[in-house]
Design a protein that fits this description.
Number of domains: 1
Number of helices: 3
Oligomer: single chain
Distance between the termini: 24 Å
Strand order of the largest sheet: 2-1-4-3
Order of helices and strands: HEEHEEH
Largest sheet: 4 strands, mixed
Shape: globular
Length: 74
Amino acid sequence: MAEKEAAKLIKQAKFFYAARGKKIVSFNLEKDNPKKAELLKLMMGPTGNLRAPTILNGNKLIVGFNHDMYSDLF
């Protein structure tokens, strides 16, 4: 998925979670009001495509894998 399509996922979410290794970044998209460019940087991989796994679960957009994050969210 390219950046343009990935940006559409952001609009469908209220909460955003991204994991890179042990680092987890989270935002309440309504309260924290992060810049779209910041979110896309967390979402896109080095090839310019959406990082995997990416899950839109209800109002939560989850990017990347971290066992502890998944345990908390699911």
